[in-house]
Design a protein that fits this description.
Helix content is 31%, strand content 16%. It is an alpha/beta fold. Strands 1, 2, 3, 4, 5, 6 and 7 form a seven-stranded mixed β-sheet that branches. The chain is globular and about 45 Å long. The N and C termini lie far apart (109 Å).
């Protein structure tokens, strides 16, 4: 039989259940830190990546940029950069030169054909990071047929040397720097080009002393 006592008992149990379901406290009275299991909050604003991957050089900085096919110019350029505390940038052909490519006695070799056709080889990167911040650029290259190695043509044509002091240096077995630097200055069309110097392979110490004496 559904008595008044039964009714009161059921009502009390129901009320207790409803209050427990609405409470934001645990049984011991502490706050419940479990979040609601609803849809996650999503910001309307897209994330912005402010890092574009480039590095800016400090104004007035010095850069040693060089192309090296066999490592000779690289050694000299590295010694100059270390001596000056300068940044260094390797001018790299997109397709590296092999030993066969550099066979100057073979009219069918890569360097021979590029010379005949006036090719400007593609580079992996034409403009160094932070280029606008450099006031002084020391430019190194090997001598090919009394000229600067062909990748220099691509580098010069692709960069603005306005407001920069440019000092060329080269490596060769016997030939001097000759007119190679003048030809590069003409190709660049801008910049304050200074007299350059020629070094033999392994002359890193001499090159570092020369660069220090420029007082750039």
């Amino acid at each position: 039989m559904f008595t008044r006592r039964t009714f009161l008992t059921v009502a009390a149990a129901t009320a207790t259940s409803l209050l427990a379901g609405c409470s934001s406290e645990n049984a011991d009275g502490s706050a419940n830190d479990t979040p609601d299991q609803g849809e996650p909050s999503v910001s309307d604003e897209p994330a912005v990546d402010t890092n574009d991957g480039s590095e800016a050089a400090a104004t007035g900085a010095t850069l040693v940029a060089y192309f090296s096919a066999t490592g000779n110019t690289e050694g000299v350029a590295t010694a100059i950069a270390e001596g000056l505390g300068a940044d260094i940038f390797a001018i790299e052909a997109a397709e590296p030169y092999t030993e066969a490519d550099l066979n100057y006695d073979d009219n069918a070799s890569r360097v021979s054909l590029e010379r005949a056709d006036g090719v400007n080889p593609e580079l992996t990167q034409v403009t160094p990071d932070g280029w606008d911040g450099y006031d002084v650029v020391l430019l190194g290259y090997p001598i090919w047929w009394s000229e600067a190695a062909w990748p220099l043509r691509t580098f010069l044509a692709g960069n603005d040397f306005t407001g920069k002091t440019v000092v060329p240096f080269c490596t060769s077995g016997s030939s001097g720097i000759g007119d190679s630097a003048d030809a590069l200055a003409e190709l660049a069309g801008s910049g304050d080009w200074r007299e350059g110097e020629r070094f033999s392979a392994g002359a890193g110490d001499d090159a570092a002393d020369w660069a220090a004496g420029l007082e750039l």
